[in-house]
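2024-03-11 09:14:02 INFO worker-7 job=invfold-0412 stage=load source=structure_tokens
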């Protein structure tokens, strides 16, 4: 079994005076994807009844070795739940333009257009096996056609 690293690099970002304990809290930041590796070095989450002391040293930025990071996996659109798809598309400026030009929607929030056209009270109601699913799939299909081939929309 590999022994975990004994060090990690972090960025000094802030400090906070803790008056009730007459001490200063020093705050360092690390990338989220390195959190588990850092917790291994620190021995897990802190426990009030079990203090652990650590040495802190300033690093020469030119000599800092970055921990490897895992690239974020991009999920396939079709693997996303319909409400998540709706949330993503609702934030695309082109989608609101499409709703106005092609669907006759006159509101200023794409999410309202999605709820209206999918006949749901909430985007979370767009679920597999429902009428809302069919309406959603049809809406997305029309929107994609308009995006890529507006003359056929």
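2024-03-11 09:14:09 INFO worker-7 stage=emit residues=153
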């Amino acid at each position: 079994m590999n022994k975990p690293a004994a060090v990690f690099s972090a960025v000094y970002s802030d400090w906070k005076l803790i008056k009730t304990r007459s001490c200063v809290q020093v705050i360092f930041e690390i990338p989220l994807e390195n959190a588990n590796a850092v917790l291994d070095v620190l021995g897990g989450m802190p426990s009030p009844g079990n203090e652990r002391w650590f040495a802190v040293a300033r690093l020469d930025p030119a000599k800092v070795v970055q921990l490897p990071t895992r690239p974020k996996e991009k999920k396939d659109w079709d693997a996303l739940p319909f409400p998540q798809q709706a949330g993503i598309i609702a934030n695309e400026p082109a989608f609101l333009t499409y709703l106005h030009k092609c669907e006759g929607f006159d509101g200023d929030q794409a999410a309202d257009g999605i709820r209206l056209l999918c006949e749901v009270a909430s985007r979370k109601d767009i679920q597999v096996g429902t009428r809302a699913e069919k309406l959603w799939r049809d809406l997305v299909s029309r929107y994609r056609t308009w995006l890529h081939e507006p003359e056929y929309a």
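2024-03-11 09:14:09 INFO worker-7 stage=report msg="The chain has two domains: 11-63, 77-152."
2024-03-11 09:14:10 INFO worker-7 job finished
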